[in-house]
């Protein structure tokens, strides 16, 4: 089965490539822009056995269709703001792609005004459905890699990215967490599973509250953390301010970054969207129900690698 990954060197793309190569039962290919063909990251993909297809997803439709010839499954990891996925969807339909995985890979949230990031993705999802292109949407919860916290000694600053340095409300809202490295392993199961065709799938490793995360880090580090609680009302006010700054048709990444962060906290920290029960209510299948024998990486094990200094750094906002 030929699987093509779009933006194979990004966070999610790299995890997907790792999973596909580890599974060993796929022909793995990647689209690379002409100007990036000689970059070290692309050479690394070649060395690992990934077939490189030179293509600009902003190019002409006929060129995209030709580049997708013979591909069974397309997995897009391009990022939220790249609505040129719409052209990619058109090309995938014309090329006869058997399954298209659009760039989802975020926390659970309902469409329609809760998270601008989600609503941008919904434009792509709706276009896929209008064309009747076979699809699977995959969301992944909140990464372990952005849930870790700084400790007073500073010994884990190399991985702490500052996205969890405040506690929303009283810190007792449960939220699903996933190791980024497991995302690709989940994907390899999902894309060959008939149960997941034309469905949404929520993959996650564990469910914890923010207070539980703080408690675990204090236990493992032996250090006391300052707990900066932020009232729900403050999160609502922050979201309103960010939305006003971003404007009605927000496209400026500089303005969108703080909006995305604020809306994430509104969604999973105030509303409690990012949990398996709500995912099922929205129509998702869940990884725990689909693949009960899957053995995910534990959050404690990830933190152990953080404190040992061996964790892989993942900078940036998910999605």
Automatic annotation (TrEMBL):
- Asked whether the keyword Thylakoid is assigned, the reply is no
Mention any Pfam family matching this sequence.
NmrA
Q: Which SUPFAM superfamilies match?
A: NAD(P)-binding Rossmann-fold domains
Keywords for this entry?
Answer: NADP, Oxidoreductase
Annotated NmrA-like domain ranges read 2-238
* PANTHER family, alphabetized: NMRA-LIKE DOMAIN-CONTAINING PROTEIN-RELATED, NMRA-LIKE FAMILY PROTEIN
Q: Does the record bear Aminoacyl-tRNA synthetase in its keywords?
A: no
Q: What InterPro entries would the database entry show?
A: NAD(P)-bd_dom_sf (IPR036291), NmrA-like (IPR008030), NmrA/Isoflavone_reductase-like (IPR051609), PCBER-like (IPR045312)
Q: Please report the name of this protein according to its UniProt entry.
A: NmrA-like domain-containing protein
Q: What does the record give under GO molecular function? A: oxidoreductase activity
């Amino acid at each position: 089965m030929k699987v093509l990954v779009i933006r194979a060197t990004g966070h999610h793309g790299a995890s997907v490539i790792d999973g596909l190569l580890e599974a060993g039962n796929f022909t793995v290919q990647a689209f690379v822009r002409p100007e990036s063909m000689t970059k070290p990251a692309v050479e690394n993909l070649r060395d690992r056995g990934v077939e490189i297809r030179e293509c600009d997803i902003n190019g002409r439709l006929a060129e995209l269709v030709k580049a997708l010839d013979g591909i069974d499954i397309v997995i897009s990891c391009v990022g939220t703001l790249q609505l040129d996925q719409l052209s990619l969807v058109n090309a995938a339909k014309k090329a006869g792609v058997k399954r298209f995985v659009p760039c989802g890979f975020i926390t659970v949230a309902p469409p329609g005004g809760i998270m601008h990031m989600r609503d941008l993705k919904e434009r792509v999802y709706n276009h896929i459905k209008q064309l009747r292109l076979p699809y699977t949407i995959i969301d992944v919860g909140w990464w372990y890699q952005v849930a870790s916290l700084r400790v007073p000694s500073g010994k884990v600053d190399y991985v702490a990215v500052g996205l969890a340095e405040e506690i929303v409300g009283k810190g007792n809202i449960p939220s699903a967490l996933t190791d980024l490295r497991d995302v690709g392993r989940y994907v390899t199961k999902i894309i060959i599973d008939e149960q997941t065709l034309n469905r949404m799938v929520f993959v996650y490793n564990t469910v914890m509250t923010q207070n539980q995360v703080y408690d675990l880090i204090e236990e493992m580090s032996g250090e006391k953390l300052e707990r900066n609680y932020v009232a729900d009302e403050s999160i609502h006010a922050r979201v309103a301010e960010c939305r006003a700054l971003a404007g009605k048709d927000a496209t400026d990444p500089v303005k969108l970054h703080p909006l995305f962060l604020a809306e994430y906290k509104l969604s999973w920290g105030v509303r409690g969207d990012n949990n398996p029960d709500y995912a099922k209510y929205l129509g998702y299948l869940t990884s725990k129900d689909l693949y009960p024998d899957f053995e995910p990486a534990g959050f404690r094990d990830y933190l152990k690698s953080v404190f040992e200094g061996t964790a892989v750094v993942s900078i940036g906002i998910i999605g």
